[in-house]
Structure formats: C-alpha cells, structure tokens
Amino acid sequence: MRSARSVPFGQRLPSAGVSLRSQPKELDQKSLAADNVQDAIIFSEMSSNGVPIPPDRARAARDVAAALTGARHVVLTTHVNADGDGVGSEIGLWHMLRAQGVSVKIANPTRIPDRFTFLLPAGADASQHAVREIERADIVASLDIGDLTRLGELAPVIKRREPAFVCIDHHVGPVNLPVGPCLIAPDATATAELIFDLAGVAGWPLTPESAQALYVGLLTDTGGFRFSNTTARALRVAAALLEHGVDPEEVYASVYASAPEGRVRLLAEVLQTLVVEPDVGLAWVSVPPDALRRHEVTPDDLDGIVEFPRSIAGVRLALLFRHIGNGRIKVSFRSMGEVDVAELAHQFGGGGHHRAAGASLAGSMADVEEKVLTAARRFLRNGQSP
Q1: Do the bridges between strand 282-286 and strand 351-352 make them parallel or antiparallel, or are there none, so unpaired?
Q2: Cα separations (Å) of 319 from 145, 286, 341, 370?
Q3: Same domain, 128 and 244
C-alpha cells in the first residue's frame, strides 16, 4: 500500500486534487492491479451507504485512519470562531474514535458557539484548557483548515512541541501545516463529507450522534443546501445521514431557530451600513466596532449577514468588514456566478472557495475598506487580479 505524502509548508494544492500522495514514476502491472482491486473493494464497501468514494480520496483516508487509531491520545481542533462544519466534523470524529477505544479530546482556540453545543457529548470539549491538551497530545488532528495560523494561540504551541499531525480539509489554497498524512479534497462540499468518507473507509459505524454532527457540517457549509457547493454527492451523503437517525427539523431548530434577540438587532444595525455600487455589481456592509458588545452576541452571530448584500439583484460580489482585535480587520467575501472570490482573497493572504472566502488585514477599518474595495472594483471590471 502506498503511503500518504507529507505536505511541506506553503505548498499549493491543485483545485481538483483529492489526496496528498507521492506517485511513483513507474508502476508495475502487479502493483497497479493490486491498487485497482483495493479501490474496487472500497467502492463496494461504500455502496452499503449508497455513496461511493473516489479512489484517491479513499487511499488518503486509509492513511489518516491508521494514524489516528494508532495514537494513544488524539486532540481534535479547528479554526478560531469555529463554524458548523468545523464543529460538526470534530464532534462526529470524536464519536467515531471513542467507539474505537481511542482517548480523544476536542481543544479549540476559541469556544464552541452556543448554537452548536447541543451536539457536544459530556466531557468531549477541553477548549478551556486547549494549550494543556496540545501539550499532552500524542497526535493533533486539524479539521477544516489549511493554514496553521488559523489555530490562533494554539499555532505557536504546535510549532514548538511538534506533535504528530494529520489534517482533513476541503479548502482551496496553499497548505501551511506541519508534516503528516492529509485528506484534502477541494471538490468536497464540506469537511464533514470527508469525515463521512473516512468512516466508510475505516469501517467505523455511524451512530445517530455522529450522523447528526456531520449533518450539521453539511447543512451549514451549504447554507441549508442552497449554495453552489450543494453537489449531488453531498445530498447523497445527507440522505445516508438521515437514514442513521438524524431529525432534520430538530437540527434546524437548534442551528437556525434559536437566535438570541441580540442577533436580530445586530443584523438590523449592520444592514444600516449597506452600500451598493450597481455599476460594478459590488455591495458591502461593515460591523460597528462595539456592536457585538452592545448586543451581547458573539462573532458567530454574524454568520449569514453577508448573504443579504449578496442577495441583491445585480450584485456579483458582496463583502463584510469587521474588527477582530490586534489592529486587524476581517473581510468576508461572497460572490455570484463566475466571480472567484478565493482568487481575490489570496491577494490579501486569505483563501477559501470559489464563491466564499475570507482574509484578515492589518490597519484601520477605513484603510482596509479602501484597499479591499479598490481591488474588488478592479477585479470585477477586469475579471482578474490587478
């Protein structure tokens, strides 16, 4: 069996890539036949869930599964201000590893948003002591990130200690992570889809709890199965999860129908800042610097607000600007049609997907807005980077 290729810092993945592996220049017929048989077995195994796995993705998943089950203590982590895909993926994987007898904890750089805590099993989340967990980890598994800096205060701890490392992610862009087996598939709808595939390859059964967590990942990263990344395969995976006991109405109520009053008032205030430039198809909103504090909400309560300017007829690119501390401004990019916001975000050290990306820049709100809006106008007019 071929082993997963380690990913050096700064390596860029091709957008169609599904697996980070070394490929021998020449394969003898016997080896090729063995691989084909093995891939056919994987397809047969996954057909029990009705969702075949691409062979390269399956091979990478085997290496990740072997690394995780061979560890004494696994720590799962995701990016700062975790979203539904990051949280759902790590909780789903937590259930699977626990069922295999693996000691495992979740340790995130920021706390899990309230609307996702219904997924949390007792004792799973050690984010309050995340640094301590990283220090004692036998292996760290990063989910839904391709750059170590997205782990905030945990990044320097990982760099210093250098634990064994695996990653599972679906973003397009440079990979800046420690060396280790990776399952990275930019064509996957969500990281939760890759955890589903990992379970299928490893033979780990889905439970109602793990299925519910993965369903939240799919649901939130597709905007309720509305965005362009809602593939036929994603819907097949969602159907398989429903067959394992997920109640979609219950999940919807927890994720989308349990907002605090402050979230709605925050939305109203942010929309007052709306600016539209119909001549280029650009719209943006800005979050006042003290809005989160005044409305007693968290950054998670900004989720989805950028979709309002994107929903305006004729708008091809929508932006949301907000303060994130340390003199930095976070910019969320959303687009319609063929506008590739991942390419635009890369200009500012960010990344993401074709129609959803993000970046953070140093500077005042006014300076960052001017810089990003100038680039966005040029990008929309020229159809390419300046």
Answers
A1: unpaired
A2: 21, 8, 10, 12
A3: yes
On whether the CB atoms of residues 164 and 189 are closer than 8 A, the answer is no
Please answer whether residues 171 and 146 qualify as being in contact, where contact means their C-beta atoms are separated by less than 8 angstroms. yes
Residue-level pLDDT at 384: 53
326 pLDDT band, cuts 50/70/90, is confident
Which of 298, 300, 269 is CA-nearest to residue 285? 269
Nearest to 229 by CA among 268, 185, 197, 291: 185
Please tell me whether residues 158 and 29 are part of one structural domain: yes
The predicted structure's pLDDT at residue 174 = 75
Cβ contact 141:66 at 8 Å: no
Neighbours of 279 (CB within 10 A): 10
**Most distant pair of Cα atoms in the chain: their distance:** 67
- What is d(CA 93, CA 112) in angstroms, rounded to the nearest whole number? 16
Using alpha carbons, select from 378, 372, 375 the residue that is nearest to residue 359: 372
H helix runs in 70-179, sequence order = 84-99, 130-136, 154-161
Residue matched to tokens 């050290």: 349
pTM of the predicted structure, to 2 decimals: 0.82
Beta bridge partners of 334: 318, 356
**What domain count does the chain have?**
2
pLDDT digits (tens, 9 = 90+) for 153-187: 999 999 999 999 999 999 877 788 999 999 999 99
| DSSP letter (8 states) at residue 37 | H
Asked whether residue 58 is domain-assigned, the answer is: yes
Q: What's the CA gap between 101 and 91, in Å, rounded?
A: 15
Q: For the segment 63-76, what is each residue's pLDDT rounded down to a tens digit? A: 999 999 999 999 99
Q: Are 228 and 201 in contact (CB under 8 A)?
A: no
Domain with residue 276: its CATH number is: 3.10.310.30
Measured CA to CA, the distance from residue 174 to residue 78 in angstroms comes to: 17
Query: Are residue 251 and residue 285 in the same domain, yes or no?
Result: no
